[in-house]
Amino acid sequence: MTSSASLLAKCVSSGAVSQEELESANSSQSSVFSFQLHEAEQRIKMHKELEQLQLELELLTADKQNADATHVFYLAARLQALQMFCTHLQDVLKDHKLLAQQLSRPLGGANLPVPAHLRRFVVQVVQMATDFVETWDKKRSAISRCAGAAANLDQLEEALADRLLRWKDA
Q1: What angle do CA 71, 75, 78 make, to 5 degrees?
Q2: pLDDT tens, residue by residue, 102-117
Q3: What is residue 31's DSSP assignment?
Q4: Rounded distance between C-alpha atoms, residue 151 and residue 161, angstroms
Q5: Residue 167: helix, strand or coil by DSSP?
Q6: Using CA atoms, how far apart are residues 60 and 66, in angstroms rounded to an integer?
């Protein structure tokens, strides 16, 4: 009896392997020694396939979350809006000289048409504006005079104090 045969006999006697499993392994041309090993190999393959599917699922969910930023449908709409804005800016740059001339022209010299029924109100508004400017100018000058008056009052008090001291001494 060979050493391998004695080992197999010990495995059968201990119950680790049955005689039928040994005979089926010997008769079939499969590379699997026992049914338990075959089941273990199948579980490992299924586990690897499950991990692969989970990885693919994670990639698909990441693609779905980022679809608004990377999908062609959304990018096309954004690109079209950007192109419209760029063409508008190019048109503005073409008309730059005309716009500059229009903005540099004073509006005071332009005659604005006023409907006849509103002319009375326009005259009143112009009168109110001139009154406001005059009143504002008067108040501004009065305030500046008050600031100057405080300084003048201080000088007058000092001069009066000096005169009183001189009068007492004399």
Answers
A1: 155
A2: 666 666 656 667 788 8
A3: S
A4: 16
A5: helix
A6: 10
